[in-house]
What we know:
By secondary structure, the protein is an alpha/beta fold. The protein has 2 domains: 118 residues, Periplasmic binding protein-like II (D-Maltodextrin-Binding Protein, domain 2); 106 residues, D-Maltodextrin-Binding Protein, domain 2. It contains 9 helices and 13 strands. Strands 1, 5, 6, 7, 8, 9, 10, 11, 12 and 13 form a 10-stranded mixed β-sheet that branches. The protein has a 3-stranded antiparallel β-sheet with strand order 2-3-4, with helices on one face. α2 crosses α9. The protein is globular, with a radius of gyration of 20 Å. The chain starts with a helix and ends in an 8-residue tail after the last helix.
Amino acid sequence: MKYLKQLWFVLLITPLAYAEALTIYANEEYRPIIYRNAQGQASGVAYELLLRHEQQTGTKVTWEMGSWRRAYELALKGRGGIIGLSKTKERSAIFDYSDPFFEVAISIVVKKGREFPLHSINDLKGKLVGVTNGASYGPDFNSALAQKIFTADFNYSSSARFKKLLHDRVDCLVLATGRQGLLLALSADPELQAHREQFVLLEPPLAYDPLYLGFHKSMKMKGFLLEFNKTIKAAKNSGLLLKAKD
């Protein structure tokens, strides 16, 4: 009888595990992965993926969007999940990860007329490179940054990075979403859109970087992530999730 009571208690609490809305933090300018659209609403590949999961499982999701730095700091405090997270050795000790749901091209953008050959990270030697504050661009880039092969100019805003490039205040910038992300970023700002021909995406990309949904280990979300992985697999099979190559 004691066993039956315990089993009944487990059955009662299981459906309530995610009854409360789950907070997901995200960068509001990570086009086309996750961003605010013209109406100020969450949009992008990651939004569509979590919406699909919400519809299939009944899990309610609340989006909290802002700068990447803010999203990361709140996720570090265990207040919610973070979408669009790269995997590093240091982060793997802090976060539980989903399976990768997308793969982005880590590319370099320059101002027209200031192109240079790009074969490896060493070709950035001595340059001032615009990057998103708090972002990771893969192990090779992170290692080169730590070794001071180039100098990083950190920004919270995507438009600020592009405007610095336009006005010759940096030599180049890092873009983690390929050509599609470039076009979307430029179209979001009138000044950048008016000068869109001034921006050149260098080929080939420096690397491809998988993206994940992560939760601080203190949140104990491995069960949720196992279910979310099923949604990722189904979305990949349907063609929803592709590499951001172009």
